[in-house]
Write a structure and sequence with these properties.
This protein is mainly α. The chain is 74% helix and 0% strand.
Length: 145
């Protein structure tokens, strides 16, 4: 990983004020991305997960589950890769993108009175957007040195 970080011009130890904080931010973002990707995979296998209990799984729901996975899986994978590499050149922008997508998912679910399912994407959006803000506006910004 050190070779990759040097190749990208990144020294991840400068991104965070302490090692404990770095580990917490990395773990929160990786967990949020893996949960999103995992839900997308589960929805392809069982599209009923995307619906309130009483609704029927139709061909349209199956199509939506695949569409959701086609968007969610690449976003989730890139967040995990960029967080683990410590690539601050792309990470801040990608966390903003992923956070906005998660926020949109949460709003859509909440608008359909599916508040319970809207909590996970709302939490993921919060983690990604707060991390991006902190990364881009924090005390340590090695890309501007």
């Amino acid at each position: 990983m050190i070779r990759i970080q040097k190749y990208l011009g990144v020294d991840a130890k400068h991104l965070f004020p302490s090692e404990e904080t770095r580990k917490m931010v990395v773990a929160a973002n990786v967990a949020a991305a893996l949960a999103s990707g995992g839900l997308a995979m589960a929805a392809v296998i069982n599209p009923g997960l995307l619906l309130p209990e009483r609704d029927e799984v139709t061909p349209a729901v199956k199509f939506y589950a695949k569409y959701f996975a086609a968007r969610s899986l690449p976003l989730s994978m890139m967040v995990v890769v960029l967080v683990l590499l410590g690539s601050n050149n792309w990470l801040g922008a990608f966390l903003i993108l992923s956070g906005l997508v998660q926020a949109a998912d949460a709003l859509i679910l909440a608008s359909y009175r599916n508040q319970a399912q809207s909590l996970a994407p709302a939490a993921a959006a919060t983690v990604h957007l707060v991390s991006a803000w902190w990364l881009l506006h924090g005390r340590s910004r090695p890309w501007r040195d």
